[in-house]
């Protein structure tokens, strides 16, 4: 059973033992679950470097479903994920804690990132952001009005598709992040 966490210990690497391996926070959750908000409020201020796939896709290609067709997202994302993998390895090798701000919807993808972190000399923590469908719909309705990189326009039918494809972590060493432990934004 996953641990309920109201706060993740985000002590900076400098305050940890000198021989401690850098930590890579692997964030798991659907669009709108609070991953980015949590990373910005809790992990970045503690010194972790945040790597966001969605933000880089937005910087290079524009807004999802507006500047390019939704079905093109995964093709646009692929080279950026490869770039972030390389950057993550370099950051871990340099002793930095890292946040992978990416949904990691499927267990095989999570396992692949865990192996990468370990092979780079880091340790991973799998942070899971469960949110019920009604709350996600509420957040997405508000978020759909924004136009930034972290405000992908998501319809109710798209959310249903996301749920159908999402494989929630179970028995993977995940830490469940309590939605009341931080100020979630729409």
Task: Using brief descriptors, characterize the structure shown.
ATP-binding protein, nucleotide-binding, disordered N terminus, globular, P-loop_NTPase, 6 helices, 6-stranded parallel sheet, 6 strands, alpha/beta, 186 residues, 39% helix, Rossmann fold
Would you kindly provide a brief summary of this structure?
With 186 residues, this protein is α/β, with parallel strands linked by helices. It has helices at 35-43, 53-61, 73-93, 107-119, 133-143, 156-165; strands at 3-5, 23-28, 49-52, 98-101, 123-128, 175-177. The longest helix has 21 residues, at 73-93.
Give the arrangement of secondary structure elements.
Layout: E1 3-5, E2 23-28, H1 35-43, E3 49-52, H2 53-61, H3 73-93, E4 98-101, H4 107-119, E5 123-128, H5 133-143, H6 156-165, E6 175-177
Parallel strand pairs: 1-6, 2-4, 2-5, 3-4, 5-6
Helix pairs in contact: 2-3
Describe this protein's structure.
The radius of gyration is 16 Å and the shape is globular. Residues 1-7 and 9-18 have low confidence and may be disordered. It has helices at 35-43, 53-61, 73-93, 107-119, 133-143, 156-165; strands spanning 3-5, 23-28, 49-52, 98-101, 123-128, 175-177. It is built from six helices and six strands, in the order ββαβααβαβααβ. The protein has a single domain (23-176), classed as 3-Layer(aba) Sandwich (Rossmann fold), CATH 3.40.50.
């Amino acid at each position: 059973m996953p641990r309920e966490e109201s706060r993740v210990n985000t002590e900076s690497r400098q305050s940890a033992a000198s021989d401690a391996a850098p930590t890579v926070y692997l964030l798991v959750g659907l669009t709108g679950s609070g991953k980015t908000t949590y990373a910005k409020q809790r992990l970045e201020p503690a010194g972790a470097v945040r790597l966001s796939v969605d933000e880089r896709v937005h910087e290079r290609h524009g807004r999802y479903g507006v500047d390019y067709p939704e079905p093109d997202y995964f093709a646009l994302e692929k080279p950026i994920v490869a770039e972030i993998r390389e950057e993550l390895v370099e950051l871990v090798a340099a002793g930095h804690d890292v946040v992978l701000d990416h949904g990691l919807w499927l267990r095989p993808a999570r396992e692949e990132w865990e192996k990468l972190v370990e092979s780079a000399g880091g340790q991973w923590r799998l942070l899971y952001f469960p949110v019920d469908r009604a709350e996600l719909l509420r957040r997405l309705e508000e978020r759909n009005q924004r136009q930034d990189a972290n405000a992908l326009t998501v319809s109710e039918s798209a959310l249903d598709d996301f749920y159908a494809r999402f494989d929630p972590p179970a028995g993977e060493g995940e830490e469940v992040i309590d939605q009341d432990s931080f100020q979630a934004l729409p």
